[in-house]
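User: Please predict the structure of the protein below. I'd like the answer in structure-token form so I can feed it into my own downstream comparison script.

Assistant: Understood. Taking the following sequence of 256 residues as input:
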Amino acid sequence: MEFLSLPVRTSGKRTYGITSIADFGIPTGELENILADFGQFIDIAKLAIGSAYITPNIKKKINLYQQYEIDVYCGGTLFEKCFVQHKIPEYASYLKELGIHWIEISNGTIDIPLQDRLRLIQELEEEFHIIAEVGSKDANKEMSVCDWKMEVAQLLEAGCDYVITEGRDSGTSGIYEKSGDIKSYLIQELLKEIDSKKIIFEAPLPKHQMYFINEIGPNVNLGNVKPADVLVLEAQRCGLRCETFYVEERACKLTF
């Protein structure tokens, strides 16, 4: 019986309000239990780092996610490994054989020029949904706010479905300071010009998630979520945690 007034959440096959988890090697049996209880709260699953390439029974895991209408993609590290070894055509064939319809194009570990990434998007967009990532995993590499905005805008214009803002699974690089503090000035600048529905903010820790929920709204796109945290995150989105208790019932901020 529902009797509380809560923020309205997107539902079904979401295009925003997305929760994207990072799967760092969940055993299939454990995953079955997680999805049976909490699959309704998960929209996308990233097979983190390059783990998909060596995961036993990888096809079984992918099929399990897809049974719950959860989109699957491989972490950007695997893409970058293939790029450096000139194996992108083989990588595309590998994904299609696995039944994966999404591909991440990133440069978090190696420096791939923006023009090369834009070219690859154009080459692959007819075969895949594309997620691109902006920002480095190296906390010592700083991008200017202007470069952040320029890259995000150009990647979306090139045909990406979403752009991810780098944060790592530790929340200590990209949109975060080494200390784990959010670069709030950067987020504010991105939101001035970019449709937040097209950005997935990596937010691995509850304190990061609560910031974005309070700043943007309950239907903000969040990534690198730990599978064990998806219920708590949904509670946060619904104003059922003290830090988001008064979250306003509002749609994500939009810029047109």
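That's the full token string. The longest strand covers residues 129-134.
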